[in-house]
Every structure is written in structure tokens, then in C-alpha cells.
Amino acid sequence: MPKKVTILDVAQFSNVTKSTVSRVINDSPLVNERTKQRVWQAIKELGYTPNRTARSLALGKNHVIGMVVSEQQISDVVLNPFFPTVLKGITTVANQQGYNILLLSLSGQDAQSYTEILQRHTVDGFLILGGPSDVNLGRDLDRMKVPYVFIGKHDPEAQHSFVSTDNEEGGYIAGKHLIDLGHRNIRLMVGEVKGSILVHNVERIAGFRRALGEAGIPFEDRLVVKMPTDMENSYYFLKTYLERDRPSGLILSNEVTSMSCLNLLLDEGIAVPDEISLVSFGDPQFFRNTRPSLTTVSQSVEWLGRTAMEMLLKRVTGGEWLPPKIIRKPEIVLRGSTKKCGV
Question: What pTM was estimated for this model as a whole?
């Protein structure tokens, strides 16, 4: 059996001490760049594999990130296309940096629960999807120095670290697109979670209202319709709703309700876009193969996951400073589900 290469072998080969090799492996700023290069060259030539467990203990890290999903959204991790896409962005960065992802459900828990998980060395930080019940959570985590990044904004005052699409602008461009096509009878369909509307949809409503105001169309509460977020219930909700109210244009808040709507309109023989125009929020790649392909306000979903993970790792490792929030402007992708009203 060939002798296993040790840290002492690397130290002797590169003519430094064992502690210097350890500092190089742990990326210590106390070692100059020339020595680092010499040690890494020795590691490469000797085929030395650093003990990851020992390295993690030395750094106080275990290279695991907790991805927190609210209890009401656990089933969506599998059923809603948003979550696999955002997870792809997260895991792409995690794999490149040697981190694993642990799925957690901490809905309704206070900041102390997050701190206790860190103290048990379960994870190094948190990516939090969906809005927790306590809008002060971001501020509490900051106070307790817990590394975290929200994917999407949940605090109306934005006092937390997050990555998001500009949802107010998204609501505006969705409404303006239909208005520019001559539609005046438009509904914004938003998901309802336990009787409440999440912040991203509140912002979309504000943008939709702005578009109506610019066009001189009075805003009324009935123009915003709260509906279930799961496939089956949203299908039957829309069926009942469209029997009593038939707008010329619908704006749909996510992928699941959009697919429910397409299925229902197909079943009912209602032509899209000849009889009703549809605009959806979501990942445009997901909707490109629907029939008809859906005009989409792009959320850049994979970008959300990738950017949130990069931001969190900067905080976990004490790397370069990043702003507490990164917001990306959405774009509308025009496809076959909208047309001029009455044409």
C-alpha cells in the first residue's frame, strides 16, 4: 500500500511549517500570496487531500446551508416549477463552492430557533424562501448576527437582506401591456395564503394600480381577485369565477395558477387570446412550450437562487461586502397569449 500523504509531507516539500500549510488550506490572510502558491503547488504534486472535517472545525463551518421553506409551501417544492428552478440556481453555486443544501421548515419560529440551529453546527447560514409569519425576522436575525438572505422581500420596510425581482414594476408592465392592447376589463389574479396576500403580490397590485391610473382607468378592489395557489382548487375557483365575470384580460400571479387557467379555458372551449388574453408571472422558459405560449413577466428565477447563494456565502465567509438587497428589473416576454382587444 502506498504511504498516505500527510500535512507534514506537504510542509517539508514546500519548506514551511505544518501550521503554515494549515493556514493556507484555511485561506488565512496571514500567509503571503507567494507562499500560498508554493504550498498549493506542493499539495497538487503530492496528491494531498485536506481533511475536510478538520478544516471545517478549524473554520467553525460545516459547509451546509439551510434552505428554509414555510410550512404552507412545502408541497410547492415539488409541485410548483418556481422552486426547482430557484433550487437549480442555489445548488449550482453551492456545488462550485463545496457546500450542501439542507431543506428546513421553520415557519412561525422566532429568530432564536435560527440561532440554536447555528449553535448546534447544523448549518452555516440560511436562505429563506417565502414570507415568514413575523415580518421583523430579518431585523432580529441582523441583531443576533445570524447569516441569512431572503429570496423575495417579506418586510414592507425592507429592513433585511434579500434578492428579489422588482414586483411593483412587474405589476405595472403587465397591466400596461394589456392596456396598450386596448383592454379595459382586466383582472389581476393573486394567490392567497392562509387568508393573506404575500408582499410580492401586494407590490404587483401597486404596480397594476399605477398602470390603470396612467390610463385614466379607475381602480376598484374587485379588479384584484384572491384565489387558491394549488392546481386543483385554483382550477375550480377560476371555473366558478369566469361563469359570473368574463374579463377580456387576466394577469396571473404564478406558474401553477397560470397552468390551471390554461387547462380550464381549453376544457371550456374559450380561445386564448381571441376571447381572453393572458399574462403570467414566472420563468419564461417554463411557458415557452405551453399552447399557446404565454406572454410572461420574467422573474429570472434561476438568477434569484444563484444570486442569493452568492450573497449568503459572502456573509458566511466574511468575504467582500455586498449590498443588503439586490433587486432586478423584470422584462416582459411577448408570446402568443395576448392580442389587441376586439380584433
Answer: 0.76
Quote the CA–CA distance of 140 and 231 in Å, as a whole number: 35
Q: How many CA atoms lie within 13 Å of 11's alpha carbon, on the beta-carbon side?
A: 11
Instruction: Name the grid cell of 336.
Output: 402568443
Residues in the chain: 343
Amino acid at 271: A
First to last CA, the chain: 80
pLDDT digits (tens, 9 = 90+) for 77-107: 666 778 888 999 999 999 888 889 998 877 6
Residue 224: which H helix or E strand, with range? strand 224-227
| CB crowding 90-124: b at 16 or more within 10 Å, else e | bbebbeeeebebeebebbebebeebeebbeeeebb
Three-class secondary structure of residue 342 per DSSP: coil
**Do 134 and 110 contact (CB within 8 A), yes or no?**
yes
In this structure, what C-alpha cell is assigned to residue 194? 392562509
Residues 6+ apart with CB under 8 A from 30: 23
Decide: residue 243, CB within 10 A, 0-12 exposed, 13-18 middle, 19+ buried: exposed
* Residue 29: count of CB within 10 angstroms of its CB: 6
